[in-house]
Here is the input.
Amino acid sequence: MQSSLTKTLSLSPSSARASTWLTAGVCLAAYVVLARASFIHVHKGLPITPWDPGLGVVFALMMLAGPWAGLVLFAGVVLGEVLVLQNEVEWPIIIGIGAITSLSYAAVTLFARRHLQIDVGLVHLRDVLMLLAVGLAGAVLDTVVLTVFLLGVGQLDVRDVVQVFSPLLIGDAIGIAVVTPLLLRFVFRQRSVTLRELLSMAPEGALYLVVIGAALWAIIGSEGLPGSRLFYLLFVPVVIAAVRHGLDGACFSLAVTQFGLIGLLHLSGYDAAQFTEFQALMLVLTVTGLIVGVVVSERENSDRLARNAQARLMERQAGAAHAARLNLVSGMASALAHEINQPMTAARALARSVQHILRTPGGDPARVDNNLTALLAHIDHAGAIVRRMRDFIRRGGPHVSTIDTRGMLEQALTLAFAEASAKHIRLELDAPDDLPAVHGDRVQLEQVVLNLVHNAVEAIAGANQPEGQIRVSARQHSAPPGVEIGVLDNGPGIDDHLAARLFDPLATSKQDGLGLGLSISASIIEAHGGRVWLHCREAGATEFRFSVPLNQSDLR
Amino acid sequence: MPSSTVFVIDDHASVRHALGEMLSVFGYSVKTYESADSFLQAIDQQNSGCVVADVKMPGTDGIGLVRELAHRNIALPVVLISGHADVPMAVAAIKSGAEDFIEKPVDDRQLVAAINRALAQRFEQQDLREAQRTLRDRFARLTPRQVEIFDLVVEGFTSHAISAKLNISVRTVEGYRAEIMEKMQAESVAALVRQAIRLGRITP
Here is the structure.
């Protein structure tokens, strides 16, 4: 079946044609083999077994590939008459039966493909209902025309009409209802399901086999009672499978039930009328199972779509946060370069002094040692800045972990110190050692701190204010339990106009700013279950604060 | 002559200490200051040597320091260093009268060369000023009569001409001349003429 779908893929025309023929051949062979396997009763040269799985196979092909596959059905009916039934029905009648059957189904298939827009992946309830309706319509059309035809050619007695009519109708309908969804789902899923997944489901599948087998044994084997009284037992495994695995579980359990039922009926020799009664019950079970299954699948699908949408949203937010970090660091680039230059200058001078001492006879080893110690400290300082910067601008998805709050603040301030000291602004951290750990994305929280400090630096520097001062403070608070972090500066304050739309994207007081910093910060903190606010906008004591709750049940 | 010191001024303690250590290992006498303002408070006109200062500092910056020294008439050469040097800053540094402008991380050969060049120039100028002062001291010891005769001698009057002009004996003129030559420590009239030019008594 798979190759009928490959027609839509970019195969070369010749290989697509070859695979189409191969599919048609496989379906034809399946039709004949299944006709042989399911055939029990013959009524005057007609197979009246109320079970036609071969039709289900070919109908699936017709739904996928189009009405032309009715040719396969025609060939299958004719071959089935000749090879399986081996009776003496005349050739024109055999041809007539084949033509009526194939044209009936070709007609409903054509109608369905033209007007109904059935998704052959059977993703929605509507698709399943439409498929069943189309199959039933085909079965009714086929059976009615066939009955009239057989009456007309004298192959059928008027008295036999009911005896032939109902098994034919039910056989066609159930063949389509059980087999066609199974094959369509198989074609739809075969690319997305791995062997490992299938193997992991094997034990549960085996359990269904056992349960269904036991129920069938109870139904068929119960002496005295008509078996159909216990038929309801089969609803249990089918509905459980449908609820647990959706449409696929339903299709699987229905196929197992149907084939098991047919097999047991073969062995125990039920008569045609009882067989038909069972198949009618089976049809009810099938429709029930399929509807439960597709409803469950639909809900799972919509859940998955919602989760995917959520994940994409988070990806986009992480992307925006990353872009804002790059912007933030590029705004600080000159300050950072300067801050790295200082330890480099010191290290170089100390290295030269050491070299000079070592080249001078009678140099002082203690002085060499001191200078080397200081030199290493300078190199480490420069290295720490570079490392922090690299970590900060590294691209990556959101990464949630438990964060030592004070450590996070210190790391954020490694970069912030560079900028503040380049602008001769005093930056101090006021955070107790016993701050509780918070849960979240470390780099994003650092970004919020750094962004607030950066804004404060720009505000002070922009006002050409001497004695600039920024104070980052952190406190634990208990109701609700969380950590509150504030960034206080003695800059010029924030005017009414800007304060009103502070957290809007693109609101900025800076000429070269993107105005994204605060809105990104706000969305980061919201994602952590907290909030950012302007605590005080007075000149000389402007303070932004944000809170991060400790119990982030809704941490996204 | 007062001793020469390198004054290192940088608000970054690491850079200040490291440059100070390097220069002191190189044999300079070094003093370090964390700001131009604290340096300006500590020095007076007697100090000599060379200043190495960062451009960007809180308070008075490097360029402001150069201007302030000139304003106070303190003859200390300044070598400016900067971590974020750009062309306008370098131009402003040199225009302000800085001796040199060096980017961080500082190449020590460049720094030492700049310091030495600045010190050498100051030494030369100092020698020159020293000589001038000595000359003035000597000239000041001349009596008014001797000054009168000094001027006539360097203007080219012979002893006879001077004796006739001032109505004194040639011997007396010869006596004055000997005393003048001795006081001015001039070994010849030519040397006396050079001194007169340097003192501004005559124009060459």
User: Anything to note?
Assistant: Residues 87 and 140 of chain B are 50 Å apart (CA to CA). The radius of gyration of chain B is 25 Å.
